[in-house]
Amino acid sequence: MLNTVIVSAFSPTDDGVRVAADAIKRGELAVIPTETVYGLAANALDSSAVDKIFVAKGRPQDNPLIVHIADRDDLCNIAREIPPVATALADRFWPGPLTIILKKSSVVPQNVTAGLDTVAVRMPENEIARAVIRAAGCPVAAPSANVSGRPSITCAKHCKEELGGRVNVILESFDCKFGVESTVISLVGPRPCILRPGAVSPAELEAILGSVDISPAVLRSLEKNEVAASPGMKYKHYSPNAEITIVDASRENFISFINADPNRFALCFDEDIPDIPPEKAVSFGSQNDPLSMAHNLFEALRTLDQRGARTVFARKPSLDGIGLAVYNRLLRAAAFREISL
Ligand code: TXA
Ligand code: MG
N or C: more exposed end of the chain, with fewer CB within 10 A? Predict the structure, then answer.
């Protein structure tokens, strides 16, 4: 067990930034806020610090990490053969919730990229995250700050519950602006390909790239023996203790289905709440507002566990904009179970 120091920062000049950065400098682990989800950060150029991330999360060794930078100029130290489309994407979306997969440079240790010849790079929009990276003076490897397989964390309170005793510093801050992890796009194949949907939507990427593929694994489970373009896609993910099933149905059908059996718990929209007994409903956002769903989904999954929910039925979100990311996470939390009514 580590002695976890808890500090806070609500502006880039707050003391907590320095405490987290100093820990990273010493080769230790710090949980830091980003605009997507909280991250579990270590010096990306120090392979023994990076090893500690895998231990603290219980993360499989073959699942590579994202390298976070605070300044555009740092990209050319991390990646090589950077194509003009990467520069165009960075110009448009950085700092922001877009991770770009490029060929890796030799300074990046093998364990960061799980032995791959490619590296995932992102410049976060959250200015506290960038202040920590700058003060640490190194690029920062950071997966989501959850124990592997559990829902990601979007508020300070859950960082301590999840990783207290496993990390050196927790930097508490505001709730994460988006609430789902960054969009991951690969630029190393023949065509740009979205490996994980996020706040930057396919339409926004197409506006810059002309056209973009979406990995089939975004909306279905991998076939037996299929190689995952992004190793993270093959693992069980975002799982609460409850068994979740997504339900594609009208509001009326969903509500009658839930109310027909006292054991059916609802993960529903705000608008459904008045028609379901309060003890068996948790909302994850407003029906026509996918941003609110992204913002609330992971917290709602944790609330289901606190409420002791066992058999949960979730309303299917619209797939527009960030809705595709919400559905992608919900599908994994539901182990791809979906029914239509
Ligand atoms: O928003 C985010 O991206 C958050 C915050 C903390 O920045 N980080 C995050 O990291 O979600 P993580 O480790 O939970 O997810 C990274 C994903 C995994 O699915 C991993 O397999 C994939 O990115 N990935 C990383 N490097 C890759 C590479 N070289 N090639 C393909 N996929 C890669
Ligand atoms: Mg993760």
Answer: N
Q: How far is the CA of 284 from the centre of ligand 1 (A)?
A: 24
For the cut 90, the answer to whether the pLDDT of residue 217 exceeds it is: no
Instruction: Cite the DSSP H helix spans in the chain.
Output: 15-25, 47-57, 75-78, 84-93, 127-136, 156-163, 202-209, 251-259, 290-306, 323-333
Contact of 240 with 305, CB cutoff 8 Å: yes
The pTM score is 0.95
Look up residue 218 and give its two tokens. Answer: 């975004």
The answer to whether the CB of 49 is under 6 A from ligand 1 is: no
pLDDT band at 241, cuts 50/70/90?
Answer: confident
Cα 3 to the chain's mean position, in Å?
26
The pick from 104, 153, 167, 184 for probing ligand 1's pocket by mutation, whose C-beta has the most ligand atoms within 8 angstroms, reads: 184
**Contact status, residue 144 vs residue 158, Cβ threshold 8 Å:** no
Q: Note the pLDDT of residue 235.
A: 62
Selection from 308, 250, 302, 300 nearest residue 279 by Cα: 308
Cβ of 231 below 6 Å from ligand 1: yes
